[in-house]
Design a protein that fits this description.
CATH architecture of the largest domain: 3-Layer(aba) Sandwich
Order of helices and strands: HHEHEHEHEEHEHEHEHEHEHEEH
Main location: other
Bound molecules: beta-D-fucofuranose
Helix content: 40-55%
Structural class: alpha/beta
GO molecular function, one term: carbohydrate binding
Pfam families: Peripla_BP_4
Organism: Streptomyces coeruleorubidus
Mean pLDDT: 90
Distance between the termini: 34 Å
GO cellular component, one term: cell envelope
Length: 336
């Protein structure tokens, strides 16, 4: 498997973009005219969304829809309800409808080669947003617009160091991990980045004692945390791969008579409004931001791709980290 880092250095984007230039010519739209708004054919973008599993996803869908509107594109949008087969059929539909560009946020990393080959054969360029895929042929997609999830995992471990210090925590750190959707890039990579820092710097005192998927949902987080607390009542840290699972877990922690943010220190990822609310109430200790507002960047890339321009292989999102004492000030400025 090629890591995301290797993707960066891969020169395949150039090859893919060359293919796209031909595609732009074939539909009779000149690069200069495409999407310029001066009576030219507007861009039709087919977008297959993962689902509506989290606050992050809602903000991401809204961002894609409003940015497409703003750019004057025709957007065909479908929600796959976290099912790969639904995404594959949505992509096949977009191919049949001969959209100009297909964008999608792949629910899991594997199993895309066949449908991506169909898109390539139809000369429809594919842009990944948010999540990456593993593929045997790097020319099957042009670029990824999204975050560095491995780094988010590392940042979560680093911020946990601060949280433990602030709490004056002594002794063993017994971590419960709520993983995202099994096989999804953010679940794999966040776990990997966290583990990397843990093994390098805290091999003696930190241990992930339980780890299971909560599928990035509140209901999943709540249910799995309840089971964790039964099997491992001595857990003192929760690392949740997203805010929604942390919020679900908080309900189970409280139901078990414990104080979230005190008896169990909580670090999560995303930075959605409800996460900030929980943080300002002292229930989440720190959040690593993952920015869902990818719409405007995506529309820019789609235009370039349609025009046959070369784009970077991975267009990374910029994000920050937040500790509890910053939550109240930051809350009114959160856009999602
Ligand atoms: O963290 C989670 C969502 O892929 C980055 O998916 C995204 C993740 C996000 O369901 O809340």
């Amino acid at each position: 498997m090629l890591s995301r880092r290797n993707f960066l250095t891969a020169a395949v984007g150039v090859a893919a973009a060359t293919g796209l230039a031909a595609c732009a010519k074939e539909d009779g739209t000149s690069a200069a005219a495409a999407g310029s708004g001066s009576g030219s054919k507007a861009i039709t973008l087919g977008f297959s969304q993962v689902g509506s599993e989290s606050g992050w996803r809602t903000a991401n869908s809204d961002s894609v829809k409003s940015a497409a509107k703003e750019a004057g594109y025709t957007l065909k949008f479908s929600d796959a309800q976290q099912k790969q087969e639904n995404q594959i059929s949505a992509i096949r539909n977009y191919i049949a409808q001969k959209v100009d560009v297909i964008a999608f946020s792949p629910v899991v990393v594997t199993g895309w080669d066949a449908v991506l080959k169909e898109a390539k054969a139809a000369k429809i360029p594919v842009v990944l947003t948010d999540r990456s895929v593993e593929t045997s042929d790097d020319s099957l997609y042009v670029t990824l617009v999204g975050s560095d999830f491995t780094d988010e995992g590392r940042r979560a471990a680093k911020i946990l160091e601060k949280v433990l210090e602030k709490a004056g925590h002594k002794g063993a750190v017994k971590i419960a991990q709520l993983e995202g959707t099994t096989g999804a890039a953010p679940a794999i990579e966040r776990a990997k980045g966290f583990k990397e820092v843990m093994e390098a710097d805290h091999a003696d005192d930190w241990k992930v004692v339980v780890s299971q998927t909560g599928d990035f949902t509140r209901a999943g987080g709540k249910q799995v945390m309840a089971a964790f607390l039964q099997s491992n009542p001595d857990i003192n840290v929760l690392f949740a791969h997203n805010d929604d699972m942390a919020i679900g877990a908080i309900q189970s922690i409280e139901a078990a008579g414990k104080k979230p943010g005190k008896d169990i220190l909580i670090v999560s990822i995303d930075g959605v409004k409800d996460g900030f609310v929980a943080m300002s109430e002292g229930k989440i200790n720190a959040i690593v931001e993952c920015n869902p507002l990818l719409g405007p960047q995506l529309m820019e890339v789609v235009k370039k791709v349609k025009d046959g321009e070369t784009v970077e292989r991975w267009i990374k999102t910029k994000e920050s980290d937040f500790m509890q004492d910053q939550a109240k000030d930051a809350l009114p400025t959160r856009k999602y």
